[in-house]
Amino acid sequence: MKGQESRVVSQYSVIPFNEATEMIMFVTVTSQRFVLILCLLFLEGCSNNSSQQSFVVLPDPVNSIVSIDTVISHSQIPNSRFNINQTINNATLNNRVDSDSLMNWAEMAYPYYFPAHAVNSFQDPYEYRYYSSTGNYLGISGNEVYVMGPLSGGKILDVGSTNSFFCSVFPINCNQGQPIELYDYFTKSSLNLFPLQASILLGGISDQSVTLSFLSGTDGASFYLQYGNQSNQYTNKTSTFSSIPHQPFKCLVNSLNSNTQYYYQVVQIDALGHEHISAEQTFHTARPSGQTFTFTVQADSHLDENSDLSQYYLTLANISKDRPDFHIDLGDTFMTEKYSVPLSANAVRATDSSTVFRRYLYERNNYGLITGSIPLFLVNGNHDGELGWLNDGTSQNISIWSTSARLNYFLNPTPNNFFSGDSYQNIFTGQRASWYSWTWGDAQFIVLDPFWNTPTSGSSDPWAMTLGISQYNWLSDTLSKSNAKFKFIFLHNLVGGLLSAMRGGVEAAPYYEWGGLDINGANSFATHRPNLQMPIHNLLVKYKVTAVFHGHDHLYARQFLDGIVYQEVPQPSAINYSNYKSIASSYNYLSGTILGSSGHLRLTVSPGGVKSQYIHSWLPKDTSPSRTNGEIADEWNISSP
Ligand SMILES: [Fe+2]
Q1: Contact at 8 Å (CB) between 633 and 614?
Q2: Ligand 1 centre from 567 Cα, in Å?
């Protein structure tokens, strides 16, 4: 790439940048001791050599420094100098963290402090690396890890034992000693002699770009992309990038043409020089008005004791067959607020960041089945941990860990020229990317998050549930300015709901922040929400929203209220699919078309209307003459206004 590029620093200013690069690498890693949550590192680009725009987002240095001072455990040691000439043997990887692996990881996780790559130096009793551009040291002595420099106010700080970082450095090996298998769609689909040993996830798809997250399952690998707009004709090839095993490597592929089908392969090069080539994958950049397209929706995969992994994989396979432009997940996917271990009946909330990261990695690998060709958008659920009432304001709580893990492994969009959304910068996570909107074809897509700004659990006071003033105003503004024929809302559950557990569809819509009534029928909206124009449901009616897609209640419910479809989305993974009538009754669903799980929704948006189809998943053991996998269990159509 020639000519001057530019980069954005802290998203406030643009400064010149002259590198021949076009790639943005995002690293978002937490540990129990290190606190810098969000680091965005600029590396070499994922594109061809044509002229391009290039941007990099760096962390807010003020916030970063503040955070490390407030949370690192301080333990100043007597010797404040690094000494020279002592060699410390690296520990083996036999369930221990060796110094090289730890410092390599720290360079990846905290590039703002430890810009890669410094050489190892030795001074009794330390093995250390010095980063001259930042003035920071990272050292290990015995089993303890130390930092020193501007990041620690000049002091030597003990930030924990080497093994306390084990799950951060080796997350894939941190499943109670058992490796987590990388379930690899590419491996299973490729006919290459050396199939890809990685999973791929696409996100942030727009009119001109897509972000690709590469999660390598092997050591010593590098990779590159080759892509083009015709099958098997890859006219563009990126540079080759080194990857760290089990840490997502994220790059932005930009300068794409809008409304274009792209084809690509990922080529991984192992330590022996073998090329592992993925099967051909595809994506489609944003559609203009007037074009027909498909997207898919799921909710509440849970993967708890009432779930079946085979059932979930079958639904993911059915989604893949639909070839949607993108997939939207309505939450309760990671479940760290309730279950730490997948497919377990043991309800234990995650108590540390490593546990949270393991669960997000596990679900990331499940999604690797389909996300090489289907960009993913996540919606937060009440069990996904990102809850205002569990956020104590420090860096060490499940709300921060879960946000950080989502940002690390997934690719929700932050505001730019294509997406609008939350610009709030959390001190520990950076931009949270939990509510956002975009236009695709003739539809406006709006994702809401009613959890982060809710200070106390809705079970104690349903009026406590809120979008918060900034999200509400953004919603109102987005709806008022939208010229799209169809407007869709996506959230896990209504803002309020019923039965102290945020339950319900149209029967719950009239209450609390969503509809303005107390449970006794009195309208007290003005008292409880003096700063909001009107209840959310009224806002959606005013701006002629087409449909609200919500989850949380584990059934299929198609309802209608004041011109809006209220669609409860079924589970993709449930093993108990026959209890839906009792669920509907106990959750106050009194009207509409009610069906059981499992499956997903396939939406087809055309200039003339919207078609929604419930695609039922039936495992072979459950099929019968009246039950066929992939059958359309229900369908609704809305004509163009
Ligand atoms: Fe839920």
Answers
A1: yes
A2: 15
Residue 480's pLDDT band, with cuts at 50, 70 and 90, is: very high
- Is 17's pLDDT higher than 80? no
Q: What is the mean pLDDT of the chain?
A: 79
Q: What is the pLDDT of residues 341-383, one digit of tens each?
A: 777 788 889 998 888 988 898 888 888 889 999 999 999 999 9
Give me the residue spans of the domains in the chain: 5-169, 187-284, 294-387+431-639
For residues 17 and 462, what is the distance between their CA atoms, to the nearest angstrom?
A: 50
294-387+431-639: which CATH architecture? 4-Layer Sandwich (3.60)
Tell me the CA–centroid distance for residue 71 and ligand 1, in Å.
31
Query: Rounded to an integer, what distance in angstroms lies between the CA atom of residue 196 and that of residue 76?
Result: 46
Give the CATH number of domain 187-284; options: 1.10.10.10, 3.90.1010.10, 2.60.40.10, 3.40.50.300: 2.60.40.10
153 C-alpha vs ligand 1 centroid, how far in Å?
43
Flag whether pLDDT at 306 surpasses 70.
yes
- Picking from 77-86, 342-351, 480-489, which range would have the lowest pLDDT averaged per residue? 77-86
Q: How far apart are CA 269 and CA 28, in angstroms?
A: 25
**Distance of CA 154 from the midpoint of ligand 1 (Å):** 46
Structure tokens given for 412 = 């929700």
